[in-house]
Amino acid sequence: MWKYFGILLTLAVVAKNYVASQEYESRIIGGQEEFITTVPYMVSIRYKKNETTPYEHRCSGTIYSANTILTTATCVIGLDLNRLHIKAGSSFRTQFDGSLFLVEKYVIHPDFNIWFTDYDLALIKLAFDLTPYPSKEIKAIEIADQLPAANRMANVAGWGTTNPDSNTEFSEQIKMAKVVMVEDEICREIYGGSRISEVMFCAAAATDLEDACYGDAGGALVYQNKAIGLVSWGRSCGDIKFPGVYTKLVLFKTWIDNEISKF
């Protein structure tokens, strides 16, 4: 696995510009502002591009355990661990509240395909356990055993852009949007059969301009208080004609638990 991980890192250097664009094309516009107590499993993954720049929100993460954050591979691949940290327990992107946690390492799924954003999943191991944990602001979320049926409503949250035409106008306060599950067959018709793999599924904006968007990648899609997927990619934000594509988290619980046992 680590041999493959090394190959991925080499590929990430070659495809630096591609990954940079995918960060923003991996798609909260619309929706409503919430407080972290409503979504205590959400964290902001923050990165500083060099030693002179501040830490900035890059994408979202999902708390799985006291020392493990789930996110997408596209969010973290190729990043310098020394410039990466996690902000937990805060509703706000830039305020000096919540808690910051250093990252010890991250693990990319061995089948991740950088070109097709397939198996878009990564684990982040924190250098120290989350504290206070569990609490009303910092709490893990369970992974569901199966996906809900098509047309069921689910919730997605994040600090991503509030403007579908911008990849930098991030929300200051965490927002939540409702999306509707889309049948696999319809999703494949929209994006092309080979583009949507068995580990992806689609969920569409319930209304125009309410959807996950740039900067929300890695955040959990939640149905009945359990995580069913992670925001991965999409053609546009808030357009009911083009649903968002999610990593099918329900298929990865065994892999996740096996990797955590090696920490």
Number of domains: 2
Mean pLDDT figure = 84
CATH topology of the largest domain: Thrombin, subunit H
Secondary structure category: alpha+beta
* Secondary structure tally: strands: 13
Q: What gross morphology would you assign?
A: globular
**What's the total helix number?**
5
CATH class type of the largest domain:
Mainly Beta
Domain Peptidase S1: 28-261
Signal peptide: 1-21
Subcellular location: Secreted, Extracellular space
GO molecular function: serine-type endopeptidase activity
In short:
This protein has 263 residues and is α+β, with helices and mostly antiparallel strands. Helices cover 16% and strands 30% of the residues.
Observed structural traits:
263 residues; alpha+beta; Thrombin, subunit H; 2 domains; 6-stranded antiparallel beta barrel; 6-stranded antiparallel β-barrel; 13 strands; disordered N terminus
Write structural notes for this entry.
This protein has helices spanning 2-14, 16-25, 73-76, 184-191, 253-260; strands at 32-33, 42-47, 56-65, 68-71, 84-88, 99-108, 122-126, 153-158, 175-182, 200-205, 220-223, 226-233, 244-248. The chain has 263 residues and is α+β, with helices and mostly antiparallel strands. It has 5 helices and 13 strands. It is globular and about 45 Å long. The protein starts with a helix and ends with a helix. It has 2 domains: 2-25 and 40-140 and 252-260, Trypsin-like serine proteases (Thrombin, subunit H, Beta Barrel), CATH 2.40.10.10; 153-250, Beta Barrel (Thrombin, subunit H), CATH 2.40.10. Strands 8-9-10-13-12-11 form a 6-stranded antiparallel beta barrel. A 6-stranded antiparallel barrel has the order 2-3-4-7-6-5. Residues 1-21 form the signal peptide. Keywords: Disulfide bond, Hydrolase, Protease, Serine protease, Signal. Residues 28-261 form the Peptidase S1 domain. This is Putative trypsin alpha-3-like protein. GO terms for molecular function: serine-type endopeptidase activity.
